[in-house]
Amino acid sequence: MTVRNGSVLFVTVLLGLTLGTGLLATARQNAIQQRIVDLPMEQASQIYIGADDDDTVAAKPVITQQYPADHPAAVHPVLRWSRIDGAVMYDVQILTRHEEEHEDGTAQNVYYEPLMPLQRTYTTGCQLALPENFTGNTFYWRVRALALDGRPVSEFSNLAQVYIDRTLPATEKPTTLSRYNKGNGTVLLYPVYDWIAIPGADHYEVEVLDDKPENPNDIAPSAHRIDSYAPRYAQQYDQKSRMADRPFYWRVRAVDSTGGPIGVYSDAQPYLTDPAANYGVAIFGDSISHGGGSISYSPTDWEFSYGSYLYFPTVNLSQSGDTSAMSSERFERDVVPFHPKYVLILMGSNSLREGVPAANVIADMKSVKAKCQENGIHPVFLTVPPVNPDNIKKAFDQDTVWNWQSQFDQVNSYIRSQVHIDITSDMADENGELRTDLALDGLHMDPPGKKMMADAINAAWPEITALPDSAWEE
């Protein structure tokens, strides 16, 4: 590839928010601009792309939404692609194709020019608002994955052509990403709502409904609204538990800076978390159990949930941001109504790394165990994984208490005296810290880490279920 007229690339550095909504809640989109590296080819005025597209290259996104001539897009197309391991964000190049000609009129070189600035996104999709002065009926695009500091962690995807039909209706409605009740690990007591950002949106309005809306794809609130949120970015962690014997629904619309609607509400998406569904096993804990990771990915990116890799069904009763005291306080409210036979408990990480003494965390664990025993539930504690303070600092700008390792060791010693599953074997590096390849942000496991957790649970589960009730009476 050769380029002309290089320019400086600006990337976005993510900062974390508070534990109150979970570190992953909006970290992916709370950002500041910072110049970090000069990569002239990324915003060159002319880009030459050789015949080097190679589908055997593993580390590049695969485009999953195509717009061929017989199935064109409207003027605000949604672009979609596959996830790349190690990616925190993605840059999308939007290009037009040009040809240089010989004097005799024959084609010489094909090159591409940027149609609009690089599109930075923290999900595997983006919606475009094409420039008003663009009158063509086709454009090209490609996408590349980036690390937290803006370094590429993949090749560019193969170049894709998009055909545009300007006669198609272009009603703005958000493309929702969260899908529930689709297999193991996809039932959450505390839902998370994700969608693809709408160009020009100042903020969004999320509706939680107790039935299907009577006014689908409208701009007015539904009569079935029971709650609402107004997030600035394209994600909302529900702060309330949602349990019922019939589905809830959620939908979202974009709002401009004057408070007016941009388009209409999205299609309403159902989810069901029924205490009477006879879930034999519950997952209980904080954000490590709730799901999500690599800073950008939500609990509804199911590859980031260890429950999705288990051999048996579960209901996930975890809440991002929980301290051990919070877990103990909400146990009767959130766990007991489901009457699971077993509950997989992973708690204490947030408390310990912030300096809460191990003795306090152990006391909270004992409290949870006592509540289990009072309600005929078998608690199965999971050992608490190590953390990586440097990576936590980079990802969330939060410090970790200096003596965290000794405090974690004390808690894990207690856990190993109970009915437990050791999930932490091989998670630590030579310094005793959580391996970066398992958790980019130093805390929340990425898919390799979640698979490791699930593998340990799956291997131990036959032995756990064979234990007599008396094993929990000690």
Q: What key attributes describe this structure?
A:
single chain, alpha+beta, Immunoglobulin-like, Rossmann fold, 3 domains, 5-stranded antiparallel β-sheet, 7 helices
Describe the protein in words.
Residues 283-450 form the SGNH hydrolase-type esterase domain. This is Lipolytic enzyme. By secondary structure, the chain is of the alpha+beta class. It folds into 3 domains: 3-163, Sandwich (Immunoglobulin-like); 192-271, Immunoglobulin-like (Sandwich), CATH 2.60.40; 278-472, SGNH hydrolase (Rossmann fold, 3-Layer(aba) Sandwich), CATH 3.40.50. It is 16% helix and 23% strand. It contains 7 helices and 23 strands. The protein has helices at 287-290, 324-334, 349-353, 358-374, 389-396, 404-415, 447-466; strands at 3-4, 9-14, 31-37, 46-47, 78-80, 89-101, 107-114, 119-121, 125-127, 138-146, 160-163, 192-194, 203-209, 225-229, 235-237, 248-255, 261-262, 269-271, 281-285, 315-316, 342-346, 378-382, 420-421. The strands form 7 sheets. Strands 6, 7, 8, 10 and 11 form a 5-stranded antiparallel β-sheet that branches.
CATH C-level name of the largest domain: Alpha Beta
Roughly what fraction of the amino acids lie in strands?
15-25%
Q: Which of globular, elongated, flat, extended, rod-shaped describes the shape?
A: globular
Domain count, please report it: 3
Q: pLDDT below 50 for ≥5 consecutive residues: which ranges?
A: 1-22, 25-43
The CATH homologous superfamily of the largest domain is called SGNH hydrolase
Briefly note the structural class of the backbone: alpha+beta
Q: Could you spell the SSE succession in H and E letters?
A: EEEEEEEEEEEEEEEEEEEHEHEHHEHHEH
InterPro entries: Ester_Hydrolysis_Enzymes (IPR051532), Ig-like_fold (IPR013783), Lipase_GDSL_AS (IPR008265), SGNH_hydro (IPR013830), SGNH_hydro_sf (IPR036514)
Protein name: Lipolytic enzyme
Organism: Megasphaera cerevisiae DSM 20462
GO biological process, one term: lipid metabolic process
